[in-house]
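re: that chain from earlier
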Amino acid sequence: QPPGYEFAVRDALSQMVLLAKHKGQIAPPGQATAEQEKRVKAALQWMESRLREPITLKDISGHVNLCPRACQKAFQKYLHCSPMEYLQRRRVFAAAQRLSLTDDPITGIALDCGFSSPSYFSKQFKAHTGSTPKEYRAAVQAATRALQQQRGG
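^ sequence. v structure.
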């Protein structure tokens, strides 16, 4: 290549980028962020409606038309965690609600909340809450009884 060919290549690339921007092919920075935010919200809604199902990063990113890496980055930017970390936390929270409000068997709750096995559920639940599902339910029931006694009921 002749000396200075890099400058000619850079100039040609710059002209292509400017042309694409003028033709509307490149979104301004604010729009790109708004689009990312919309996609994260759509992913959250989609995930919420499928908590019971096995979900992969590929499923999530495919639903919102992002590559898996871009999906990871968007979640990290808006939620400070990966899509799979968010999903795991959401499943644990859903299970904690069920443990608090029902007498359903723990195994059933684990499977209904999308966990593949009761033992994996217990491990994840303890990692997120500091107690096993059984301990959590007992603590909630004890607190509820104490509150009812204070109220005179």
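The mean pLDDT is 87.
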